[in-house]
Amino acid sequence: MDINSIKRNYGIIGKSIDLNRAIDIAVQVSSTEITTLVTGESGTGKENIPKIIHSLSNRKHENFISVNCGAIPEGTIDSELFGHVKGAFTGAHETRKGYFEVANKGTIFLDEVGELPMSTQSRLLRVLENGDYIKVGSSEVSKTDVRIIAATNVNLSQAIKDGKFREDLYYRLSTININLPPLRKRGEDLQLLFRKFAVDFADKYNTDPIILDHECIKLIQDYNWPGNIRELKNFVQNLSVLEKEKNISKSKIVEYLSSKNQNLPIMKSNIEENDFSEREILYKVLFDMKKDLNHLKKITDELIGKNKINKEEFDENILQVDNFYKKDNKQEEYVIEQNLSLFEHEKNLISKALSKHSGKRKHAAKDLGISERTLYRKIKELNL
Questions:
Q1: What's the predicted TM-score (pTM) here?
Q2: Contact in structure between 17 and 187 (CB atoms under 8 Å)
Q3: Radius of gyration of the chain from Cα atoms?
Q4: What would the pLDDT profile of 208-251 be if each residue is shown by its tens digit?
Q5: Assigned domain for 331 exists
Q6: How many CB atoms lie within 10 A of CB 75?
Q7: In a domain, 171, yes or no
Q8: CATH number at residue 216
Q9: Same domain, yes or no, for 228 and 329?
Q10: How far apart are CA 350 and CA 353, in angstroms?
């Protein structure tokens, strides 16, 4: 089977040299029993390589099992992979087959193999060496005949230096290493993938496909795409669903991408919870002004003490300033005395709101015009 036929069968889009090379190696090793390690960044499509190898191998009519090692908790990973006997641990009410037993005679794909705990790595090494494994809670050695293909986006060489991955296991797994290139190094493949996703989502959502002008194409080509194909697909889906105008402009692309020099695309949202309501902002402004006024009084008192300012004139000016900032802060449900400080005003206001609604913060917060979370924080700050 030629490379183009394989691409069509597995929905692989692209014609970059590195991508074709990776597929070609997969085809060559498929007829052998060589253990293969697939490497590449997250979202590059590593899961396709094991499927290609299995479908072209002598084991193609047997089970193919894919296991995401990073998604299984450390406490249960051994049981999942190798099985357990009845009574092996609390909740083990019956003997259970592990993935290696189920995949016997077939192929097992260990995705994110770099996330395996060290104890499980030792067990895996034994399987690779002679096919032996022991179920959790058992002393009996079991046998399996399975082809192992592993994948990781972790730098295993560095993990070995850090003591997080066994060196002997690495050499066992990487007899053949197939590396998938990141999207940013695949040249024209980016445009091909974009068009494919645009057409797919247009069909799915019964709309016209989105179109990019030359400036937009240049912008997405300059972008790093750390999430690779997966990130690009999500990006195209967002544009397809949210944009009514299908001729996407450069300015619109910029709205979705933080910038071409940053890693993550961002979605602009008109809905953003703000802990500071208008009332709180007003309180803060008034409180800051109050502090400034007190500070000014302190400085002026010092100057008066040095006989540099006439006290009578100062008192008259301060009275005018005080009158300027004083407000009759009257509301339908709350009457706040003018001689209270801003701190006391706020405390009084919240106390009355809570009292009015029998301590129900949700209703009190709505009445005050602030979020429930903000009200909770204020209650703690004011010791209510």
A1: 0.65
A2: no
A3: 33
A4: 999 998 888 998 998 999 999 999 999 999 999 988 889 998 88
A5: yes
A6: 9
A7: yes
A8: 1.10.8.60
A9: no
A10: 5
